[in-house]
Every structure is written in C-alpha cells, then in structure tokens.
Amino acid sequence: MSVLSLSPEVARARAQGLPVVALESTIITHGMPWPQNLETARQVEADVREAGAVPATIAVLDGTLYAGLSEAQIDTLARARRVAKLSRADLAACMATGGTGSTTVAATMIAAATAGIATFATGGIGGVHMGGENSLDISADLYELSKTPVTVVCAGAKAILDLPRTLEVLETLGVPVIAYGQDTLPAFWSSSSEMNAPLRMDSAAQIAQAHLIRANLGLAGGQLVANPVPRADEIPQSEMRPVIAQAMMDADELGIAGKALTPFLLRRIHDLTGARALETNIALVRNNARLAAQIAAELSKAG
Ligand code: PSU
Ligand code: MN
User: Is the pLDDT confidence value at 270 over 70?
Assistant: First the structure.
C-alpha cells in the first residue's frame, strides 16, 4: 500500500536527486484569509522554483496524502471551509476516513520524510503557548522536530507564543535552533528579539552540512532554522506587543483554546493591524522558501 502520492514533478525530482522543498498547507487553510492564502501558496511555489528547487506542497485530499499539489488542488484547498488541521495524532485517521485536511509543521515533516524530502519551509512553527505552564498547550511541532529528520526553515516561533519556554523545550528535546545570519532569535513579524539563539550559521552550505552530519551520527530529528524576516517588511516588537496582548485577551474572553487558538490569534492580529501583519507574514514565508531552496540545492550537491 502506498501511503503517499507524489506529483509527477516531485517524483521526477526525487528520482533524479534534484532539490525539493516541502511546503505546508495549514498556512493556506487556517493561517491566511482568502484570497491572500491562494496568492501566497502560488507565489511561494514560484519562489522555490525561481531559486532552483521543486516545490512539494503537502495536504490530504479525500483520504490521499499528497506531496506536490496541482494548481487545481491548491485552489480547492484555498477555497475549502472547515478543513481539518492535521498533526501527528490525526494524519492517519483523516486518510483512513477519506477526509480532507491541511498539514501542520508536524504532519508536513512526517510526509516530507516519507517522500525523502529533507528541507521544508513554513512561516512560524508552533510552540509553548502563553500560560502553557498551566494549560500544557505545547505544539506537537516541537516533538516532531526531535523525531523526524527534516530541516525546517521558519521565521522563529510565532510571537504569540512564550518564546523562552519554547526554546527551553527545544533544548530539552535536543533540537538544534539555528539563527540565520544573526545572533538573536527572530520573532516572526519582527526580525529580532532580545533572546540570543542557541546557534548561528551564515550560509545554506553550513546548514546542509550539519543536516548530513547529524544523519551520519545517527541522530534522530531535524533542525530548526530561524530566518529573520527582511527588515523592510518587519514590524518591530514594540509595535507587535500591544496587538498580541489584545488578541490574547479576546481569545481568553471567547474561551478559545486547543487547535483553534493559533488560527484565531493570527486572524485577530491580521485584523487589528489592518492586514499589515498579513503582509509581513507573506514576506517572511517567501523569504523562508528562498533559503530552503538554497539548503535543498546544497543537500542535492552533497548527495
Ligand atoms: N506559519 C504561519 N501560519 C500558520 C502556521 C505556520 O505563518 O498558520 C501553522 C503551522 O502549520 C503550525 C501551526 O504547525 O500553525 C501551529 O499550530 P499549533 O500552535 O496549534 O500547534
Ligand atoms: Mn496547541
């Protein structure tokens, strides 16, 4: 039984050892509003291609897990309502019941590893939510990074999260957190935070080397690359702080928790900033796609 369906383009690239970048789909269904979700999904694929790699957007459609979607499939997903948000726990159940679901960072990593794709670009990973010490709302993305050998390029954990505790969990799990080209950890909408990143690298080649060395050492799990949003597109932390606080108060008042929390906060923050945060979100995903393509190219050269 084949558990994963590769698009013809992705299958060809894999067979020839060409660079491939996995892309997630929760950002399409739960992370951005229509029509920016569709525009961004298309644009990010174009960015990956322009940087010399093949994009593989991952999702479950009518029970089939795909790596590489056609334009029509991306369009369907972007327009769909009430799509399941799939993580490690619910991926197989969605496939077994013929459902349709978008993949989070965790589920996308699982699919990418199954397809032999080592590099993946997203916006921001999940992490420890504010108040997580009581709610225990800690994203399965963190555990996935400790298990599945994929290098994930993000713009930091989303700044709606408890960043110091998120870093602590990643350290406990033995996940390398690598800031790209700077010492401080980027904070999604902001290119920098007060926190220093545990590791720093300045080239895609170094990141690819570290990925290969980890594999040779038999170390389970992937790497997290935190790529700062370009300065021209960032919103400084001082401006984001009150907006995030307001969105969190709203979530609290409405009793929103669990899987619905991250999508709610992102939507609220996009609204509160008059879509400025959305523009920044789009810019950082595109920036991550370009770096991921460079890393994939280095891995392909080394392989
Ligand atoms: N990056 C974005 N927007 C998003 C996400 C990432 O720019 O919506 C998604 C990813 O799929 C990530 C998920 O896995 O948010 C985290 O959800 P949670 O906090 O419920 O684990
Ligand atoms: Mn959660």
Answer: yes
